[in-house]
Structure formats: structure tokens, C-alpha cells
Write a structure and sequence with these properties.
The structure holds 2 protein chains of 2 kinds. Chain A has one domain: Porin. In chain A, the strands form 3 sheets. In chain A, strands 1-2-3-5-7-10-11-14-15-18-19-20 form a 12-stranded antiparallel barrel. Chain A has a 4-stranded antiparallel beta sheet with strand order 12-13-16-17, with no helix packed on it. Helix content of chain A is 0%, strand content 61%. By secondary structure, chain A is mostly beta strands. Chain B is α+β, with helices and mostly antiparallel strands. The N and C termini of chain B lie far apart (48 Å). Chains A and B meet through strand 6 of A and helix 2 and strand 2 of B.
Amino acid sequence: MVGWTHPVWGAPITFNTALPVAEGEFIAREQLILNQSGHDPGLLQRDRRAVTAVSVLGYGVIPRLAVFGVLPYHNVELNVTPINQRQSRHGRGFGDLTVIGRYSLVQQHGRGRNFSIAPFLGIKVPTGDDDQRDDLGRQPPAIQLGTGSWDPLVGVVSTYSTLNYQLDGQLSYQTNNAANGFERGNVARADVSLQKRLWPRSLGSGAPAFIYGVFEVNLMYQQRNRIQGSPDPDSGGTRLFLTPGIQYVTQRWIGEAAVQIPVRQNLNRDTLENDYIARFSIRFNF
Amino acid sequence: MKKTIVIALLMLAWQLPVFAAASQYQIRVDGLTCPFCAYGIEKQLSSIEGVVSTQVNVKQGMVIVTMADGTTLNEEIARDKINKAGFSLRSMQPVEPGERIAAER
């Protein structure tokens, strides 16, 4: 029924893979994600609310190679009304760890501008609890903290930046494997982010703080989930988000916020729709 | 007379290291586009022995490196450090004594 996965890795604000990391440098990002899904096309009056704190740590191995670890902490609540009685299920704890390696194949630098293309590979490791239970028995996959499966992902990210703006684009594909008789649908994503310097309007000397206005577009397609090998008709589909945001950028840290607004959801049958996804994060280098 | 010349030469030789070793360098960096990126350059250049301070100018794509007295900055070492930061060294030149910028500590 509800089995879509939301990305917890990626940069500008909604994706982490474009985060810049120098050799021998660390970058850390802590992001709070509020994910509200309450528009139920079916009869169960489902309402899902997830508050996730995502910790990202990146390290520059060499100038062209960076590795990232992404670990979410979930607090998920699912309310349903199966037979005239409202049920509430909760899940809280660390989810699955995702490890990603990114290598810059193309790097071009000019005065006040740069361009890069970097493929990346990653693996989601089943570190989260995938067998949570409560008084009603085993909890549904929508609120399990982990999937129990090792899931590889692949993609490419590209960045073009100048003193006035930055444009990032990412394509990615994650294969989700079966565990506990359940297999989430594979996910394909396309993300674009534009960051435009709003302040200062003209640059002076030094390295002043910037304020960027941000606009991102997130397109996600998920295949149907499989339960005991059979496709779940109430899962999968395509979602398109428009995401306005803002960033405050200094030499050592960045504060940012964005809200993903679903403008189009072409989902299969009774798949639960998103209301919105809000993101607040801070990142710093050391 | 000879004694006077020798003394003068010795005094000049004692002063030469001070004049020969520029205490500031202006480095042009390609690829620098935001303040968050500047930290990596500062960290890498600051790891070079003799570097007292670094000042980044994002708009100019420039870094001013201040060295300790009597030390010099090797361009190949600076190039390597800037590459490690993820950028490219476009040019490097010493700052004339009369044009030096006060180092920020």
C-alpha cells in the first residue's frame, strides 16, 4: 500500500551527491525532514507522518574522489481505519545506512566558475530494524525502520557554478531487493537545483557570506512493490515536486531550508499521496 | 679602505635574506565561486610550513598568503595544495613590499 522511498541522500538541499569536499576535509550535514502524506485515494483514511533526522558525513579521499555515509533516524507514525476503528502504528529508530563513493570524471576550472561531472556508486546496508512489532503484530513496511535488504544505487551528478549562481543536476537509480517477503519497487530519480545569489548584490573583497535563493525540481519514479513475489497494485508511480528554498552560506557552515511541493502525482491505484516534504539543514566543513 | 668595503659587504649580505624572501604572495585560483569552497583552500595552504595566514577574495579569485619572515612559498607546493582543495592555480607572484596587505590572524 504505502511503500515509496524518499531520498535521504543528495546535495543542494534535496540531494547530497554534489557536496564539495577537498582532500583530507570532512563535511557534515544534519537535515530534518518532515514528510506528510495524508491524501488517501482509498477507503482506509491513511495518514502517514514521518520526521527524519538525516546525518551525512563526507570525506575527500583525493581531489576527485569523495565518500559519503548517510544515516537516518526515523520517527514514523501511520494511522489507518481498517474496520471503523482507528489504528495508530509507530516506528522510531535508526534506519539503513547508505554509503556512496563519487568520482569526478570531468573537472574544468575557470576564473569565477567551475564545471564537473561525477558518477557515483553506493549501497544501502540493512542496519535498520526490519522486524518491528507492536500489539497488532508485525508493522507494515511503510513504518519499518529498515528494509532488511542490500540495495545498490548508481548515478551521475553534474555541477556548473559561477559567482552568481550554481546549477546542479543528478540522475540516479536504486535497485531494491527482497527481504522478509517484501521488495520495494526500484526507484529512478532526476533532480535539478538552481541556486541564485540574492545577497550581497555585488561582491566586495574577502569571502563574505552569501544568501542564495534556491529552486529545485525532483522527479521520482518507483516501480510497484512486491509482496511474496507478486506486484502490489497499490504502490509505485511517478511524483514530481517543485521545491523552493533558501540558503545562508559562509566559509564554514551553511543553513538552509526548503519545501517540496508535489505538483503531479501519477500513482498506481490507492497509493498514498504526499502532501508536502519540508527540509531544514545545516552543514559545516572541518 | 678594504676593511670598510668588507664590513659594508657583510652588512649587505646580512640584509639580503630579508629582501630576497617575499613575505606575501598573491595566488590566482580558478574554480572559486562561493565562500564555502574557500575553506578548503585556506586549510590546504595553511598546512604549508611557514604560512602565517591566508586571505581569500572570492570575487577576484585570489588568495593572499602571508609567510613568516625568512621563508618563501614554493609554487609547486602551492599548486599541489590548491589542487587538493579541488581548484587550479592560475598564477602566483610575490607582493611588493609597498603593496603588502595586513595579515588577518
